[in-house]
Amino acid sequence: MAKEREFASDPLVSHIYTADPSAHVWNDRLFIYPSHDIETDIPMDDSGAHFAMRDYRVLSMDKVGGEVEEHGVALDVEDVPWAKRQMWAPDAAKKGDKYYLYFPAKDENDIFRIGVAVSDSPTGPFEAQPEPIAGSYSIDPTVYRDDDGEYYFYVGGIWGGQLQRWQTGEYVAEDAYPADDEPAIAPLVARLSDDMLSFAEEPKEVELLDRDGTPIRAGDNEKRFFEAAWIHKYEDTYYFSYSTGDTHNIAYATGDSPYGPFTYQGVILEPVLGWTNHHSIAKFNDQWYLFYHDTELSGGQTHLRNVKMMPLTHNEDGSIQTLNAFAD
Ligand code: FUB
Fold first, then answer.
1. Which residues contact ligand 1 via a Cβ below 6 A?
2. Given 22, 213, 236, 285, which residue has the most CB atoms within 10 angstroms?
3. CB within 8 Å of 262: residues ≥ 6 apart
4. What's the pLDDT at 141?
5. Quick one: average pLDDT of 101-130?
């Protein structure tokens, strides 16, 4: 009989399925903005139709290992005028006394757009803007506040995330990927406007380079960007981390500016139980943590995930120690 594998950490909550954890520390409390996975009869396909999520729930805790609170529905698809289905991986930002929830969802034409919803509380409820962010598309938004107070928005995901359908600048309802020896499809970055509701500039491609300074190629599935962008800063260096998708790693690349370019450095998290791998990185009470998900609770059902966290270490040379979600 096959040996059951041991996991390195436990699900943070087990009464609902959660995934794609975006973690932030505000007012000494840790807040996690996950996707809320649900059971569905929708058959599994390459577009990810079985990821049929319909609302967001925020988690929070005041200490690691303490009680994890789940704060109820923070935003429901029914309350977003333009959104029809598939509320995928969100992120949140705080500016002044306001909290902003950034989220992807499919519109009435089945095109992923990015919405923003605002609240006076980090746990919501959030009120959605009537339209998606002008000029936004694809999935997995994340917002990074730099030390100078500017906010940068990153976005993108290929395959089900549709980024490959925007390579002409317009949406084309057919997948178009570069040849294996061409640069891989890049995620996008744009500075946010002062009100946090729109782009302050035209989104630009984030350049991801191999160690020899050449762009990571589309055929380099071990290293090329797939989805799940996240950014953190450690000692003056910007770390851009992401999922490699069909090779199931969380990889990272470093640079000197929030715009990049970023140079590939290695793997932060090896494949977990389940197809998707999606993470965030945050410092809480002087310790860095990796937030991630696997499918322990559902016994491996890829669209029914649970969020977890574990300590993350930057080595003296700035590299990150590779983590594994299994204990054995
Ligand atoms: O949760 C739905 C999608 O699965 C996310 O947007 C991707 O990053 C992957 O985790």
1. 19-20, 35, 51, 88-89, 139-140, 157, 227-228, 276, 278
2. 22
3. 206, 207, 208, 209, 238, 240, 253, 254, 255
4. 99
5. 98
